[in-house]
Each structure stands twice: as structure tokens, then as C-alpha cells.
Design goal:
Elements lengths: L7 H21 L1 E6 L5 E5 L2 E5 L1 H7 L1 H7 L17 E4 L3 H12 L10 H14 L2 H14 L4 H9 L22 H6 L6 H11 L2 H6 L12 H25 L10 H20 L5 H4 L16 H20 L1 H4 L8
Parallel strand pairs: 1-3, 2-4
Antiparallel strand pairs: 2-3
Helix pairs in contact: 2-3, 4-5, 5-6, 9-11, 11-12, 11-14
Organism: Schizophyllum amplum
Protein name: BTB domain-containing protein
Length: 335
């Protein structure tokens, strides 16, 4: 015979089962290193709990300030921990740990965050209205992906001053492709051109077509992003070839040996066009006034022609940089 759903014994069994499940849930929670014995609020993400101070969180975050303005559960509430109300956050424990760690020590404790932590910083700073966390993440991105050509080149040649707190660390399986979606979503337009350039310059066509894979705390690139990168890369390649052709075709008006320099320029054109054929752009990243000195053809030119080529290439770089946002379908610099 089926048991009466209103039978007291059945209700007792259900109640005991519920208590057992709840006991199991409580036993799974882990106390994080961020645990102040005199704290007055417990934050929980996944199975990790953090005991913090309401005043500190409210100082950094208008969101939490508003939350704390609402009456909290009393100390005898079944879900309270050590007399403190528990606020559950939907983000991963890693993201919450980074956010709370930043609030406790904004600079010195996070000198070189992973790319995933920078992405989390943007999302959580935007959601919880934490201005300091937002500014820190944006400063790191602007350092890596600036809107001036000379700054972009310096960060990739090691000649810039080392400001460690504005750098980003790439962990295994992390890729700069993982930045695009959040940078677009947050409306950071001035970061996008250099970020697109870096990605289009670094990865081959197969990687760009596949897109950054979703991994851990990071999501892959959308179809729209992949199309944007592939289109922009094709336009960059066209600009690259046009500038190479110009730079390697014009001798100096004061050339000291026209025949020898013509042969050297032709051989240099072959070297760079071969790079283009291999889909290796690396135009604005490495193609500055110094790298020509590493090519053996350079030694065959007279110094006046070599200097004229460097000057032409430098002007060409700046011209391409000036139109860089347009190559990726973005508003012009300064718009």
C-alpha cells in the first residue's frame, strides 16, 4: 500500500532527510584565508566563505553599501555563520577571492594578475560598482594595448620603464583572444584597436578561425569577433605589402652606389614578401627602425639608402597606425 503523503511518519522522514542534506551542505563549506574574527559579514562564493567588514566593503562598493542598508537576518538565523549574515555571490570563488584581495590590498598583493583575474576585475567592478578595481584593470589593459604607436612598440621591445602593477600575466591556456569579448562588452573602444592588432599579428589563420576556446574562468571568442579579426588581418596584410613595396623601392637621392643598392633592395623585398606569403604579418610589432639591421641585405646598401628606407618604413607604420581602428571596423582614434 502506498504511504499516505500526509502521514506523520513520512513527514518525519522527509524532515530528517532534509536536515541530513543541509548538514552535508554545511560541512562542505570552506573557510578562506580572508577571515577576520571580528568581521561582521560573511561572503560566500561556491563553497568558499569569507568573513569581512561591512564598512570596508561599503567604502569600496556602492552596491554593497545599498545591500547593507537593507535589514540583515538576525544572529539566530539558521544560515548565519558565527553570528554574521551570509551573502551568496554567483561568481566563482577565484573571482571573488581576487576582488576581496584587491579591496584589502589594492596594489601590493596583486602586482601581476593573470588574464582571467583582469577579466574578472572588469566584470565584477562593473557589476558591484568598485571604481578602484575598474581603474586598476583598465590601466593594465591600456598599458598593454595603448592608443599611441610608440607606446605599443615600447611595450614589445623591452625599452619601456617597468611598471609592474600595470602588467598582465598569461597562464597556460590563457590567450589575449579571451580579452576581446569583455573589452567590447564594457565599451573600452580605445583599447580594442591595439588588442585586435596584437591578436591578428600573433596568431595564424587557423587559430583565428577557431577562436579562443572556453577554458576555466574564460570564455571563447564569438563568431562576430572572429570575422572582425580575419577581416582586419586581411586589410593589415594589404597595408603591410604596400608599405614594404614603397620602402624597398625608393633609393636615396644621394645614393652612393645605385647598382648595388638596387640589388640589395630587390633581395630585401623578396625577404619581406616571403614573410607575407607565410601569413606572418608582424608589421607594427617588430618592423621598426631597428629590425632592418638584422637583415643581411642591409649591409649591401649604402648608408644613405638604408637610412632612407628606415625613414620611409617609419612613416608607413604611423600611417597604418592612424587608420588602425578603421581596419577593424571601429571609430577613428579620438572619436
Amino acid at each position: 500500500m502506498d504511504a499516505d503523503p500526509y502521514d506523520g511518519r513520512v513527514l518525519t522522514l522527509k524532515r530528517k532527510r532534509g536536515l541530513a542534506e543541509r548538514s552535508s551542505w554545511v560541512s562542505k563549506t570552506i573557510r578562506s584565508p580572508i577571515w577576520f574574527e571580528d568581521g561582521n559579514i560573511v561572503i560566500q562564493a561556491e563553497d568558499i566563505q569569507y568573513k569581512m567588514y561591512k564598512g570596508l566593503l561599503a567604502t569600496y562598493s556602492p552596491f554593497f553599501k545599498d545591500v547593507f542598508g537593507v535589514p540583515q537576518p538576525t544572529a539566530d538565523d539558521a544560515k548565519a555563520v558565527e553570528g554574521c549574515a551570509v551573502i551568496n555571490l554567483p561568481e566563482s570563488a577565484e573571482d571573488v577571492s581576487y576582488m576581496l584581495g584587491f579591496i584589502l590590498e589594492p596594489k601590493s598583493s596583486t602586482l601581476l594578475p593573470s588574464l582571467a583575474s583582469v577579466v574578472a576585475s572588469l566584470k565584477m567592478a562593473h557589476k558591484y560598482l568598485i571604481a578602484a578595481l575598474w581603474d586598476d584593470a583598465v590601466a593594465r589593459l591600456r598599458y598593454e594595448f595603448p592608443d599611441r604607436l610608440e607606446n605599443y612598440q615600447k611595450t614589445r621591445t623591452g625599452t619601456s620603464v617597468d611598471h609592474s602593477y600595470t602588467r598582465i600575466r598569461l597562464l597556460p591556456l590563457e590567450s589575449t583572444q579571451h580579452l576581446v569579448e569583455v573589452v567590447r562588452e564594457m565599451g573600452l573602444q580605445r583599447i580594442l584597436p591595439a588588442l585586435y592588432l596584437h591578436i591578428a599579428d600573433k596568431f595564424n589563420l587557423d587559430v583565428l578561425t577557431e577562436g579562443g576556446r572556453t577554458t576555466g574562468r574564460l570564455t571563447g571568442t564569438s563568431l562576430e569577433t572572429r570575422i572582425t579579426l580575419l577581416n582586419g588581418r586581411a586589410k593589415l596584410l594589404g597595408a603591410y605589402i604596400a608599405q614594404l613595396r614603397l620602402a624597398a623601392s625608393e633609393p636615396s637621392p644621394r645614393c652612393l652606389d645605385s647598382r648595388r643598392c638596387a640589388v640589395a633592395r630587390a633581395e630585401l623585398r623578396d625577404i619581406y614578401f616571403a614573410r607575407a606569403e607565410n601569413a606572418n604579418i608582424r608589421y607594427l610589432r617588430f618592423w621598426d627602425s631597428e629590425d632592418i639591421s638584422t637583415d643581411w641585405s642591409h649591409s649591401m646598401m649604402c648608408p644613405l639608402c638604408a637610412e632612407a628606407m628606415r625613414a620611409t618604413r617609419k612613416r608607413g607604420q604611423q600611417e597604418v597606425w592612424n587608420t588602425l581602428p578603421l581596419l577593424f571596423g571601429l571609430p577613428a582614434w579620438g572619436s
